[in-house]
Amino acid sequence: MAVTINPRRTPLIAGNWKMNLDHLQAIAFVQKLAWGLKDAGHDFTAVEVAVFPPFTDLRSVQTLVSADKLPLAFGGQDVSAHDSGAYTGEISGAFLSQLECQYVIIGHSERRTLHRETDDDVAAKVTAALKHNLVPIICVGETAEDLEQHGPSAVPVSQLRAALAGVTNAADIVVAYEPVWAIGSGQAATPEQAEQVAAALRSVLEESLGQDVAGKTRILYGGSVKASNIAGFMREPNVDGALVGGASLDIAEFSSIVRYQKHVGV
After folding, report:
1. Of the candidates 13, 12, 104, which has an alpha carbon nearest to the alpha carbon of residue 58?
2. Which range marks the domain in which residue 157 is found?
3. Considering its fold, how many domains does the chain have in total?
């Protein structure tokens, strides 16, 4: 069975490094990743590749990507709702834009749980990202308790509606469905589960931003993504890529995920 790709949406494989790799390790990693994919004949226009290093690595990654004209996108793992001011430890969207970041992850489950970010916080950050011409990757997802209490898609749908509350134009956004119960567990959702939620999320996009935006917005799956299961997700009509965590730190594994069209029996 061939992998079905929506011609309106270029698949995106995004690697969230979380708090891993210093700036020297980041340079070596990005070089090896880009060169390895190029040597393997990867078509970066067919499947986009993005990495999300820690803030301290971004300048090094930007310099390397710019100097060597590497076909990789990159972005921040979070952004402040504020442009500037007395907000110790926060990072303005203006700073990320100056570093030529294309994307920023917003509302990741670890930010929601460890840092107690609310739906209102996420919505404010989405507004800030768009203000500074960053594409927000809006993360939504449910815990095992949410799933049992509310059923599939209820919590992610509610979170996305809240995140889009301040978005009034046909903005360029990405949505990532990351079931909290699957992250780091080694037990991913099934492709059917991911598709059910992704379809519900696309309906929210249509309600909030219109049919055209809903049709072109990419929805990613995140949660124990591996080279051995990525093709199953990518067969689903409403899944347009993956937000990869732990596996994105392994160059061979991440490259295999990126190249799912070429090497996985589908």
Report:
1. 104
2. 12-263
3. 1
pLDDT at position 3 over 50:
no
- Catalytic positions are 108, 178
Q: Which long-range contacts (CB under 8 A, 24 or more apart) does 151-156 make?
A: 152/193, 152/196, 152/197, 153/196, 153/197, 153/200, 153/201, 156/197, 156/200, 156/201
Confidence tier at 6 by pLDDT (50, 70, 90): low
Domain of residue 254, CATH code: 3.20.20.70
- CA–CA gap between residue 266 and residue 264 (Å, rounded): 6
Residue 263: predicted pLDDT: 59
Average pLDDT of 150-171?
Answer: 91
**Inside any domain, residue 1:** no
Residue entry with tokens 């780091």: 184
Cα separation, 138 vs 216, in Å, equals: 15
